[in-house]
Amino acid sequence: MTTQSHIRNFSIIAHIDHGKSTLADRLIQLTGGLSAREMSEQVLDTMDIERERGITIKAQTVRLEYTAKDGEAYQLNLIDTPGHVDFAYEVNRSLAACEGSLLVVDASQGVEAQTLANVYQAIDVDHEIVPILNKVDLPAADCDRVRQQIEDVIGLDTENSVNISAKTGLGIEDVLEAIVTQLPPPSGDRAAPLKAMLVDSWYDAYLGVVVLVRVIDGEMNRGQKIRMMSSGASHLVDQVGVFRPKRDTMATLGPGEIGYFTAAIKEVADTRVGDTVTEERRPCDQALTGFKPSQPVVFCGLFPTDSSEFEDLRDAMAKLRLNDASFEFEMETSAALGFGFRCGFLGLLHLEIIRERIEREFDIDLITTAPSVVYQLAMTDGSMMELHNPADMPDVVKIDHIDEPWINASILVPDEYLGAVLKLCEDRRGRQRNLSYAGSRAMLEYELPLNEVVFDFYDRLKSVSRGYASFDYQISEYRTGNLVKMSILVNAEPVDALSTIVHKDNAENRGRAMCERLKGLIPRHLFKIPIQAALGGKVIARETIAALRKDVTAKCYGGDVSRKRKLLDKQKEGKKKMRQFGRVDIPQDAFIQALKMDD
Amino acid sequence: MLSNNWLSIVLKPDLPPLSIYLHWPFCAAICPYCDFNVHLMRDMQPQQWRAAYFAELQYAFSQRPQGPVQTVFFGGGTPSLMPADMVADILSEINRLWGLAPDAEITLEANPVSAPQGHLADLSAAGITRLSLGVQSLDDAALKFLGRTHSAADALAAFRLAREVFAHVSLDLIYARPGQSLAMWRDELACVLAETPDHVSLYQLTIEPDTPFHRLHAAGRFAVPDEDSAADLYEMTQDMCAAAGLPAYEVSNHARDGHACRHNIASWRGGDYLGIGPGAHGRLSDGQARRATIALKAPQAWLAQVEAQGHGWAEDKALDDEERRTEMLLLGLRLVEGVALSDMAIGGIQLPPERHLALQQAGILLPSDSHLIASPQGRLVLDNLIAELLPS
């Protein structure tokens, strides 16, 4: 058993692509957690999507055994944290389980907005922070400038920073030494009643619900009767252990240690993240403060392309929800798209990941409708209503006013793209709060309505800054806005899945842009198709798709007909990827593409 | 000549008329737009090929013995490269097996460079009644682009020669070529029509997969006219041909009265055609089913199978009702005369009257209670229309 003074708990904070997962892999490799044969790239990102996108979605944990230069053996617990703003709540709880962080910054790129948000969170929970400059072997690396930036922008002392190249393995041992020498050991009383923080939980097909905990005081043992302090539910612990990163069972987890337990818990929903786990017979007096539960902020409809797959989709969602309590769904019926689900997500990346997992892991083709935020409607009769779906908007005469969520956004952007980024923010109804400089990079703070950001703001930001701008946000408050519902009519029929809530001042521009886009997205038909944008009964924009003029095979004789028949079958398959509205076939991706704005 | 199978004709009076398509896979040069089953002529042993065609005709006869044969079509490839005596032998073998109808139409496709006068006369003597001449263009630069080895003057000379020999001569042309304006095509087509042909096949250039043109086009080396320009070109073509007394009888085919290609009309109307030769497709009715046959494509493989098994058919399967209905629409709607709705009732599915009416109102179908007839505008969007008409 390791004494507390020889335990170090830490997480790694980094922007996407700055090398967090590679560094984690190196640490595991160097401390012998896995043999070379078992090392597959980026061990901790276990989902295919995580590896492909180079991001971490679920917090992962690994225990490393390290004998330091002082000759002593240390137990290092790493909690890997997600880098993306959508998963900020996971970062929050991971940080709360540690005493220190490694701040990894790409020495050729410098500090990014997402790094900032996470590092401030770490400072908030009193972490010791070791700055790590990664990719120092790249020709573009500029360690002095980046160190200066860390001091200027974040206010961290960089005297003890470590230069590494996670890719080549340079400096990894120095990182391990810095963890041992610069980060504090955990405190905690072994004799006190068990007090452990529930960091995360997930469903495992063999073990049932696996619960990740950080023990604060006391001990957690196999066979112990424990109690969840929020619900009062008690369970018998049947397994205790750690990940190295392979699962390794142990008899006990002591104060300061991070590990997992299983206790025949059936649903992830029975384990609340941030809850305090204590002993049934000898409970601790005070529960930990816990975390703010995460709230979905973005909603969209997911519909099976093939309506017969509705039940499969329901099963798929239920399975994903087992491991992701932040993802919400309820049944939705659309005149256009049939049966599907209205789903709530933490952000756009979260949406995309869930959608991709359903398509990939469950092999269900989906139609995604335009993402929307949650509006609060104050009705004339004094009641309030939450609006998740523009299609559900009540009659305007019954609405007194509509409130929409706003965010505080921070954007870091190289000087030369500042103008374009300012224009983008202004076009999206932004209000500038602050503009400062860190070297040649501007740091912008803007208040923006979330509904202007939720759709393609991030894509646009990347595009106007050639990928150099980084962006992060926090939800601030609801504010009243002059908002209206814009309907789209295709061939004189309203298509509910294309209706959106827009600010009245932007309605005409948006309407025109959507009609123009749809004109390019809907193929020509045998007849001409009017496309209209309307507010209430008033048409504010109109385009017409001309009738198809030519689509005929020049040569088709007896010898060509078999092939022609096969082509026709293919065409029919293609048609299945369309949705029929009256007599018009609309391609599935049009529902999302129509909303993208080129500004 | 009376067929020796007259009894089966009496017993199965509803068999469609019979045609034979015979594929000659060889060319002197391969054109870059062509996706047909074509091969350069190397080591071709006429005796071996003659024997193989004979064997396959005999096999086809055993599968569909009811004659007589109404039309024969020698397609390719470049069948004008066939020795005339081989053509003559094949026709007498067909006559021996099924009997050739007295007024049988016997077409052969010819390339202007392989149609010298003596050869044309020999082909006529062998029994050919109709020549389809691959002129492709009357513009030398365009001919070069299309990979043709003849000039416009060669083509016109061949056409004039052919008319002296055959009662029916048709010209093939390719238009809607890269950079071809309405005015350019008007002039070129006017030159064609000034020759007062009885039949023309006018095809818009189509970029087919797995052709040199496909690669060049994909690489951006040339562009074909866009949808609207192609439609303008097509419409002008219809008007000019009609004014010259050559109205369309099919999407790309125009003829004076009495000069339409009977062989092709028979297959568009759902007639039987036996596919002979490598890669040939056939449709035959045997009283129970309508069968689709496809022969092996590669000449050597086809030869080998014919020698081993008596035929080169790689596929021979019955079409189900839906496939038959699809083919009927795919082929029949190409004709100006349309498809009888009673024929569409195979399998009991009919076009709902309100759909029929809506398409008539849109000007895509012509008004008719008994037939589905595409309007000239409808023929121009036929692929889309057919997809609309078929149940998904």
Question: Unreliable stretches of chain B, pLDDT < 50, 5 or more residues?
Answer: 1-12
Helix/sheet category of chain B: alpha/beta
Strand fraction of chain B: 15-25%
Counting H and I runs of at least 4 residues, what is the number of helices of chain A? 14
Q: What are the SSEs and their pairings?
A:
The complex is a heterodimer of chains A (599) and B (392).
Chain A: E1 7-14, H1 20-30, H2 48-53, E2 60-67, E3 73-80, H3 88-96, E4 100-106, H4 113-124, E5 128-134, H5 143-154, E6 162-163, H6 172-182, E7 195-204, E8 208-217, E9 220-221, E10 225-228, E11 234-236, E12 239-243, E13 247-250, E14 252-253, E15 258-262, E16 276-279, E17 298-304, H7 310-323, E18 328-334, E19 338-345, H8 348-361, E20 366-368, E21 372-373, E22 375-379, E23 384-387, E24 399-414, H9 418-427, E25 431-438, E26 441-449, H10 450-453, H11 457-464, E27 470-481, E28 483-490, E29 493-494, E30 500-503, H12 504-521, E31 529-535, E32 538-545, H13 561-576, E33 578-581, E34 584-587, H14 590-593
Parallel strand pairs in A: 1-3, 1-4, 4-5, 5-6
Antiparallel strand pairs in A: 2-3, 7-8, 7-16, 8-15, 9-14, 10-11, 10-16, 12-13, 12-15, 17-19, 17-20, 17-21, 18-19, 22-23, 22-24, 24-26, 24-27, 25-26, 28-29, 28-30, 28-31, 31-32, 33-34
Chain B: H1 6-11, E1 18-24, E2 26-27, E3 39-40, H2 46-63, E4 69-76, H3 84-97, E5 100-110, H4 117-126, E6 130-136, H5 140-145, H6 152-165, E7 168-175, H7 182-194, E8 199-204, H8 212-218, H9 227-243, E9 253-255, H10 262-268, E10 272-276, E11 281-285, E12 290-295, H11 299-309, E13 313-318, H12 321-332, E14 339-340, H13 341-344, H14 353-361, E15 371-372, H15 376-379, H16 382-389
Parallel strand pairs in B: 1-4, 1-10, 2-3, 4-5, 5-6, 6-7, 7-8
Antiparallel strand pairs in B: 8-9, 11-12, 12-13, 14-15
Helix pairs in contact in B: 2-3, 3-4, 4-6, 7-9
